[in-house]
Each structure stands twice: as structure tokens, then as C-alpha cells.
Amino acid sequence: MRIGLLGTGPWAEMAYAPALSAHTELDFAGVWGRRPEAAKELADRHGGLPVYEDVDALFADVDAVAVALPPSVQAPLAVRAARAGCHLLLDKPLATDVAEGRAVVEAVERAGMASVVFFTARFQTAIEAWITEQADAGGWFTGRAEWLGSLFDGDSDSPFAASPWRREKGALWDVGPHALSVLLPVLGDVEEVTAVRGAKDTVHLVLAHTGGASSTVTLSLSAPPAASGATAEFRGRAGVNVLPSSDEGGVVPALVRAGDALLAAARGGRPHPCDAAFGLRVTEVLAAAEGQLAP
């Protein structure tokens, strides 16, 4: 499968380009970026790949695209790519606007394209196995997820600290998708969401799920470094089960597995659990929470 990369920022450089280069069944065929000079630098680091100034020309030359762009840029380009006959490897969140996310899903369905949204934990082997085990066990009456980062701590040297969309949207949209990607497969869809603000960009959610369970979520990108970390747990008839830790060599191996998932969906025609439709549902839940936080 020939695949092109859209995006040239830190996430494309650190995760997507290395994963596409490492994948044995994906032919990394070219790069497009909003900054042509950055696209050339990235392409040169991965074997002198072709650089496309016209994104539609890239769509015409490949079977699939991977997108490492802000959500407001990702969604419209994903629609164009699907209409051009490209399968989609997308990043979370699919979109921060429900209408834009729905347009992606509709374009994918009408064109018959496969889609996978990269929720990191869902492509880490140990964590995905744990999620499947909890979903099969059932009997959970409550859950909890905390995703606390220190990206906006004054001492952070992360290349993502200056990300305009993260500065605008905060933890709700950056790490909220990770928390929901763990809770929803186990507890079911969300029927009702209540959201309140905490310190700085911290957000607290209470979720009512379709099966009668409830969960709480705490999200922040401004936690003190000593308080940062991610965890989730479920409580029910089986007792208490806590999210296992999983590094597995970092994000690149997980993204390689997301590539595997896209190939399987494209070949077999069976949607992946983390497809664009799931990405849209996450967007809908987060948008409902954001609506309650508006000043």
C-alpha cells in the first residue's frame, strides 16, 4: 500500500515519518506540508522521498494517507483524501467540530475507504489486551480515568508546548480522547456528560454510560510534573482492575500497529474499532462537555 504523509511538525517528525518508514508493508511514498521547506527536510531524512506542493497530486499517487496535522486542518483534508480514493490513518482528535468530524465519516462511507484513528493506548499491545479483557468481563458499575500532563508547566521543554491548537483547546481535546478511548469500549457509549473547570486548563467530567455504569475523568496539561501521569481503573463484580503501564518502545511501534490495522481494514472490509465513526463519537462527547464549559 502506497501511503503519503500530510504534515511536517514535531508529531510527524517524531512519530509518523519513522513509523511509516519502519513499516514493512507500507510504501512511504511522499510528503506534503503547509511549509514546503519543512516537507523537504523531513522527506530528505527518510531517503529523499518526493515532496508534493499540490496535496491533490499526492492523493492521486497513493492508496492511503497518514495525517499529522491540527484537527481543524486534518478534517477537511481527510474528506478530500477519501473522495480521491485514499484510505485514512488519522490522528486524535478526528476533529474539534462535530460537523467537520461527521463530514469525514460521510466521505469515508460514501467512498468505501478504510479509516483508523490513532488513539495511542489502543495500539499498545498490553493495554489493548487489558481493555478487551475488561470489556469481556463486564459487570462494571463505575470507572475512572486521569490523564494529567505538564505540557503547560513553565519549565516544559516539549516541542508541543507552543502548539497553537493545544493552547486554544487545552487538555479536554488533547488528552480527553485518550481517556475516552479506554472508557468507552468497556463501559459503553456516553448518554450524558457533565463538565466543570478546574485549575488552569484542568477539566473534570462525569459520564453516564448506556449500560448503567458511570465514570469520572480528570484531564490537564498544566499539572505539576511530579503529579503528572495517566491511569484508569474499573470497579465491579470482578473487583478493581487498573490500567497496566506500557511503554513497548515508545509511540512508533504503536503507530506501526495502527498501520497494520489500516491494512487489515482495507483488505478485509471490516471496520476497525478505532475508525472514523468512533473518532466522531469521541468528538461529540468532548464537544458536549466543551459546551458546558463555555464562559
UniProtKB/TrEMBL annotation:
Stretches assigned to the Gfo/Idh/MocA-like oxidoreductase N-terminal domain: 1-114
Matching InterPro entries: Gfo/Idh/MocA-like_OxRdtase_N, Gfo/Idh/MocA_oxidrdct_glycsds, GFO_IDH_MocA-like_dom, NAD(P)-bd_dom_sf
Pfam family, one: GFO_IDH_MocA
Keyword RNA-binding found: no
Annotated GFO/IDH/MocA-like oxidoreductase domain residues: 153-239
Organism field: Streptomyces ossamyceticus
Keywords, in A-Z order: Oxidoreductase
Stated name of the protein: Gfo/Idh/MocA family oxidoreductase
